[in-house]
## 1
Amino acid sequence: MKKGKEKESLWKALKNNLYLLKLSFESCPGRVIGEFFYIGYRYGSSLFYTVIFMGFIFKFIEEGTDFHTVLFFLVIAGLFWGIGGLYRAVYERTVSPIGNQKLYENLHIRMYEKATDVELECYENPKFYSQYTKAASQIKGRAFLVVHVLPELVCSVICAVCAGVRIALIDRYAIVLGIIPLVTTYFFGKKSNQVKYDLYQENIPKEREKDYIKRTIYQKDYAKEIRLTHVFSMMMEHFKKASDAVIQNTKKCGLKAGLLNFLQGSTNELLTGMGVIVYSTIRLLYFKNIKISDYMVLVSAIGYLAWCLTRTARLLSKVQDTSLYIQNVKDFLQYQPKISESQEGRMPEAGNTNLTLKDVSYTYVGQTQPVLKHINLEIGKGEKIALVGHNGAGKSTLVKLLMRLYDVTEGEIQLNGANIKKYNVQAYRRLFGTVFQDYKVLSLTVAENVLMDTVTEEDRPRIEQALRDSGVYDKVMTLPKGMDTMLTREFDEEGAELSGGEFQKIAIARVFARGSDVAVLDEPSSALDPIAEYNMYESMLRACRDKSVIFISHRLSSAVLADRIYMLENGEVVESGSHSQLMKQNGKYAQMFRFQAENYR
Ligand code: ADP
Ligand code: MG
């Protein structure tokens, strides 16, 4: 039973390794084929010189072969050596390093494409996220291993068979001596792999904690807090604790792994290394039933067979070891996104977007309570909608559902009467131009930041207009390279560092440049004062005359501008209507409006 299970896991390990080899082959076939030849040559020459060459030389001496035959044999051997050596040198210095770059580049692109395709929910699922980070950090190293290990495995098996046949031709019982190390290495290797993997698993949470601390310390975002509070010393405590835990784990597992290595090495030395010499010498000197040339071949070929088999076993345990990591990569790459950009579907009709939420509820993954409950609302073509409510009311979640970054848990969202799930995801998302509360400015040029795509000459007027509409054009023109100036100094010393408000305007320009049917502004204005916010929304609405606009704010002074206001509280729409209707209604909105107006005065 147990044996069956082991076999199955070895089989599964081989399949996983082959999966990554196939990916690597698709990414860079030359690298994989080149490695096969490279290892083939190394093994071929070692087989030739240890098992065949020496035997022939002694045979020539014993039989007194004529000089021309010996010379011919030596020239062939020399040629084989010379050509192989040349290939080896070229391969190691050019084919292999260039192939590696191509291999990693293509593999990483595959990972990134997948990472951008999976739904946003995956990033909030700690299990998935940790699988992704593991896969991303492992794929390069593992691909290199697989590209090397599998060809070597094939070669070592072939060479072992050849050596075995050669030994059997002299003395088939002697093969047993060469097989012993296979058994011991497989047995000990498996155990020490488990020890290593356990150590890796135990260290992951600690390493992640350390990484987090490292990141916070060198990232600009946290620099102010770190200087103004005692948080640094507290974090250092955590860092030290995590490092100590890693040291403790390593101590614990290191002793176990060392002992296993020692046992494996000494068993092989004793049984095979000494065994073969004692056995062959007894045959040569005591029974006198073996020729000198066969004695030479037997001693070197058994050693070689043992080496090949040990190597095979090591490689197999590497295959198993690697398989555990490849599983992460495989699970990640084979994950079928629930909302995939590559999904086919209807194309939405441009310039005509009527959105309806019908009884929509949503619960975040891993949560028990819904954050949105039975929401019904409509956003007509060209309508200006304000979503208002306190922090945590569910406004951001609502717009993320609208853009299909998540799928609703209950109810449905319709575009022109049809469920949004029926539309082509990419085309559907293109209907929206969005600035989020936590918008990010990238280390790219101003123009690229606005367009969020490759900028061509034709795009320039559109970008310029977008910058004008968001009110930051004049500022951009004062920068050394205008809209081609890099933002942030991450990669360019002459990069521009703008103020929070200016970065915000650049983010808002994205909505204008995108020219989509629906503009969504999720409190990008939170850093502005109420008057600046009001002005910004006013110019925004003017520039978006013919578009639908959804703007979110927990400040009601701007909501006045909207055609219709939806007020959210604890995930429910509690009031809706125009500003004057809601004031007349004299409910929660009116109360909150008066309260805020009082405060700002
Ligand atoms: P608002 O934008 O109105 O401030 P949000 O939509 O951001 O509110 O959040 C609504 C509720 O959902 C809050 O209670 C918040 O804690 C919770 N929430 C937001 N994002 C997540 C998430 N990714 N996972 C779990 N809960 C979340
Ligand atoms: Mg929000």
Note: Residues 395-396, 437, 522-523 surround magnesium ion (ligand 2) (CB under 6 Å).
## 2
Amino acid sequence: MSIALGCIADDFTGASDLAAILARSGHKVGLRIGVPAADDVSEPAPFEVIALKCRTEPVDDAVAVTKKAANWLMARGADQFYWKYCSTFDSTPDGNIGPVAEALMARLGTNQTIYCPAFPENGRSIYMGNLFVGDVPLDESPMRDHPLTPMRDANLMRLLAPQVQGKVGHIAWPDIAQGAAHIAGQLRGLAYNGIQHIVPDAISQADLAAISEAVQDFKLITGGSALALDLPRLLAAKGSVAATDAEIIAPETAAGNIVLSGSCSAMTRAQVADYSAHAASLRLDPLALADGPDALAQARQWLASQDPDAPKIIYATAEPDDVALAQEKLGRDKAGQVVEDALAALAGDAFDLGIRRFVVAGGETSGAVTQALATDRLGVGREIAPGVPWCFANRAGETFAITLKSGNFGTEDFFTRALKMLD
Ligand code: ADP
């Protein structure tokens, strides 16, 4: 089987989000952790999603690893690509959304793409080029205080322009509302004028359906996950992928469970508070972790003393003021790194203690934990919340379940609800 759509995601929660949305079509979706080896002989699925951890890497590193991922996908037949980033356009003035898109465009020999992070089902919409989270502009949402990618502007054209060499353009909602053929015409007009990077407005899933239909032949599409919802159907209609009914996978796993949270997003903070009320909980302090090995050793001891089957949570999740304090003392990267390293080490311990159900909150955190569990391929199961599926993998001959929750996804009772689904 060859790959109909090769997808590359800039973080792990984003990859599982995209995989869940594509899997709603009933087509088989592969989720790979990192670029698979060149000699990987596993049968590719028609939709393959490669999860990278390159959102906040230096631009050159992000470009290099995404090109490597694209080459792997191309070698297995992919000639259309999807570059997936967060529905809140998480990036810095340097990138990496724009530079990676531009590098992929060059690699694929195409001169236009779209940027559409909208995810109406999760309250992300774009109007007149401005991204809204619920009813507030992005820069008034909690993303304003994100530890790694604080978003201080809501205008996607202004956010994108410094990240790319080419020209940035916009298709406004009144044009989007006229449907796919009209949008395709608008895109051709913009291409004729040498405008390569297009932000389309989208306030509903119907808008996204029209946009995806208009760009269904594009070599490269970029956006959040919701834009991809109709792509399997569109590609099947063109004959790029055979119709299938892949079964939703739901293997049995042992009952031992843990929640690991390194996300400081507003929704995660509410989720951690909700879960801590009835679960054993341990808070990690980045300053103590940076101070020497004792803090991690104590956390490991705490974990080892817990009943594997009882609800428990280890979190570094903190309020913006505490995050700012840790960053001021340690630097942004170091503060994030000590937390990620600790949660990764604790995930490995948890597995050794017989825990087989992992709920992980945070994109970067998910990358660290998944890498620690040394898994390179995940099966995509049922969605717990829009864009957050249970995934399944093997380690040392044992199946374990893991869900990777992006910071602002899910409802307050997400952790409880997720674990209940496996009972
Ligand atoms: P989200 O999905 O909410 O963006 P991420 O895991 O991607 O979550 O990013 C959160 C980052 O903040 C991680 O690098 C994490 O290690 C770091 N972090 C977590 N807790 C703290 C804290 N208390 N102080 C500073 N940084 C923290």
Note: The two ends are 35 Å apart (CA to CA).
